[in-house]
Specification:
Layout lengths: L2 H14 L2 H8 L3 H15 L4 E3 L4 E3 L1 H26 L6 E7 L1 H18 L3 E7 L6 H4 L3 E6 L8 E14 L1 H7 L13 E4 L7 E6 L2 E6 L4 E3 L2 H9 L4 E5 H9 L4 E2 L8 E8 L7 H14 L10
Parallel strand pairs: 3-4, 3-5, 7-10, 7-11
Antiparallel strand pairs: 1-2, 5-13, 6-11, 6-12, 6-13, 8-9
Helix pairs in contact: 1-2, 1-3, 1-4, 2-3
């Protein structure tokens, strides 16, 4: 029995807490996974797992062995990726995870052009506004839009800086007036993004320092397009990135407000696990993203 296959099976059992879950992840039978683990235990002369009717957990010896196995498999992936990187073009499957609105508004064209450049590559694109870990989700790369990331266990390539703006329709401003300072937002209808890292607190920076404002939105949604449409319809003030509302600002459907106050910096970044940093398909995709969005992005042409 192949030792590396047995090691992979053992690691999956620990990762997913059981033989059945590991078997589903690998795509083999539960008995095959069980046989792999028994093979390792026989070879090592040690019990690696404590089995019960409810769950499977590593023994102290098993956990120490698990940590070494993870490191070995990581090195093996890196070695395979190094060989793959010697090829001029990408092959195989590239699994990409990206935010829903950015994906539909901007990434779809990028992916189509990238596929044209690399016809031997198959793309699996998943869109979700939930913050995901590419390791847990099985993605090769994740595109994330957030404040600059520090201390991440992933490799982070910042592609381009973007910004969020406070905006409303001209009709809303005409009927309700325009706030002159952040604290005035308490008297206005606010359209609130449900996955904002700071919860329902919007933060602005002026000459006199930071102004955090707690908003009780008349509409809360986890999708920026819904908030954009509500703002255009005059339902309130939205705090959205310009990659969502840039065209509306350029064409006058929305206008920026509180322009004298700065908003937090946002980065559009490509993230991937350290073990995959030599992968040709990831390197080429990251370079293509940087090429497409280099400089000031097209959606950010309003001052």
């Amino acid at each position: 029995m192949d030792r590396f296959e047995s090691i992979r099976a053992f690691v999956k059992v620990v990762d997913h807490g059981g033989f059945a879950a590991a078997a589903r992840k690998i795509g083999v039978s539960r008995s095959a996974v069980n046989k792999h683990v028994h093979n390792l235990e026989d070879r090592l002369g040690a019990q690696l797992l404590t089995r019960s009717t409810r769950k499977v957990t590593p023994t102290e010896t098993g956990y120490a062995y698990y940590e070494r196995c993870v490191a070995i498999l990581g090195e093996l992936e890196a070695a395979e990726a190094a060989v793959s990187a010697l090829h001029e073009d990408a092959r195989g499957t590239l699994k990409i995870n990206a935010p829903m609105t950015f994906g539909t508004m901007h990434l779809s064209r990028v992916v189509a052009d990238f596929m044209a450049r690399h016809p031997d590559l198959r793309i699996e694109l998943t869109l979700t506004d939930r913050i995901t870990d590419p390791v847990e989700e099985g993605a090769d790369v994740t595109i994330r839009i957030s404040r600059p990331l520090e201390g991440s266990h992933l490799i982070v390539h910042e592609i381009v800086e973007t910004r969020a703006v406070l905006c409303a329709s001209p009709d809303y401003v005409r009927l309700n007036g325009e706030p002159s300072r952040p604290s005035d937002l308490g008297d206005h209808a606010c359209l609130h993004y449900g996955y904002l890292a700071t919860g329902n607190t919007w933060t602005f920076t002026g000459p006199d320092g930071e102004h955090p404002v707690h908003v009780n939105g008349v509409l809360c949604s986890n999708n920026g397009t819904i908030l954009r449409d509500a703002a255009i319809a005059g339902r309130g003030i939205a705090f959205l990135p310009t990659f969502i509302v840039g065209a509306d600002l350029q064409e006058g459907r929305l206008r920026t407000i509180l322009t004298g106050y700065a908003t937090p910096r946002l980065s559009i970044s490509v993230l991937y696990p350290p073990s995959r940093h030599l992968s040709a398909k990831i390197r080429l995709f990251t370079e293509f993203m940087a090429e497409r969005f280099a400089g000031r992005p097209y959606w950010d042409l309003v001052g």
